[in-house]
Amino acid sequence: MSIDLVENLSIPAESAPVLGSPYDPSSFDRSVMTTYGRFPLALEKGEGCKVWDTQGREYLDFVAGIATCTLGHAHSALVETVIRQIQTLHHVSNLYYIPVQGQLAKKLIDTSCADRVFFCNSGAEANEGAIKLARKYAHTVKKIDEPIILTATASFHGRTLATITATGQPKYQKDFSPLVPGFHYVPYNDVKAVETAITELDSGDRGVAAILLEPLQGEGGVRPGDRAYFQRLRDICDETGILLMLDEVQVGVGRTGKLWGYENLGIEPDVFTSAKGLGGGIPIGAMLCKSFCDVFNPGDHASTFGGNPLACAAALCVLETIERDLLLQNVVERGEQLRAGLKAILAKYSNIVAEVRGWGLINGMELAQDIPLTSSDVVKAAMNEGLLLVPAGPKVIRFVPPLIVSAFEVDTALQALERAIIAVV
Ligand code: PLP
């Protein structure tokens, strides 16, 4: 690869759709484990907020890799950055200093309440890091021998053993016992439940070490956190020394119209995690904390790929592009436009749609409980209308487009959604 290629690829990809024969998934299904319930759609090209399937059909992508493709597809800045970095240095061990990792850490610290960062590759891995940090903090600073982490029912924190245990949804835990000990679940947005749990769990060697929550529950149905609830939890944590840890994996990096989800709640966490949108689709995760609770020493935690130069350059590019292109403003404006449009649909089809909720460009439309229609039915119908959406549970349809989405694309998506609703009822 020469530098000329970088120049060539900096030109936006040709917009003509890729034409091909219908994709036959049988070989794929024989060789790839069936851990996903896949839609019958094979995607092979993307540009901006659009993707194309193998037959050249165009779709408006309001899934964005599930809140991951922050800058959409084939964004020229990300394309150039990744090519330049892979030509320079794409991976070295964390046994050496990696300057671009340091630059990314500084950027994250300068733009958040955190003082220190650990880099990894995914949301689950970032949450594992937070869980380990909380346990070590409990053992070494708080002298708690059996630390408990409180998490919320209907939460989602990942698919590793510790993070499915942290996840307060039995469907993700079924058949994987024995689970990891040391977690206790409380209802979301319920202060009393937290107070009761802290009192009841505090006995002998046991005690609550940390509370791990999403600022807005994503997979659990796009349920925003309540400001008064989080502010009270902040006070409780200050009074007791319990760590307040926020899982920003789905809502961080501008998705809510603020860079970090916690900014919507008027509080600062002690620890927070990021992944999904951080690299705009290039895998990277991060666990960030205030310096007082950074108890990790050399050898305590590690990740071979974590924070490699390629992923860090991509994440820096994402953060700089959000800033340079004033994308937070776009998220606020397009989010208001989208919610207004969804509420107009609710008003028109109030027997089908029960509620619309969300922040910025993470929004959910809940279907009426008393009708047999599921979110998957609507998602499939929307796909037929050229719009990609993703369920957040059986009754909630989630809208998480790239942060670069235009007013025209939001209107187009709303029209496609209405056609889809008409088609399924
Ligand atoms: N935490 C939250 C809030 C998430 O939404 C997700 C994924 O959906 C995860 C953690 C897990 O992230 P990953 O799939 O990158 O491990």
Features of the shown structure:
Aspartate Aminotransferase, domain 2; 425 residues; disordered N terminus; four-stranded mixed β-sheet; 18% strand; seven-stranded mixed β-sheet; binds pyridoxal-5'-phosphate; single chain; 17 strands; alpha/beta; Aspartate Aminotransferase, domain 1
Describe the structure.
There is one protein chain. It is built from 13 helices and 17 strands. It folds into two domains: 15-74 and 326-424, Aspartate Aminotransferase, domain 1 (Alpha-Beta Complex); 89-324, 3-Layer(aba) Sandwich (Aspartate Aminotransferase, domain 2). The chain has a seven-stranded mixed sheet, with helices on both faces. It has a four-stranded mixed sheet with strand order 1-2-3-15. Strands 13-14-17-16 form a four-stranded antiparallel sheet, with helices on one face. Helix 11 runs parallel beside helix 13 and helix 12 packs across helix 13 (407-424). With 425 residues, it is of the alpha/beta class. The N and C termini lie far apart (53 Å). Pyridoxal-5'-phosphate binds at residues 122-124, 127, 156-158, 214, 218-219, 247, 249-250, 275.
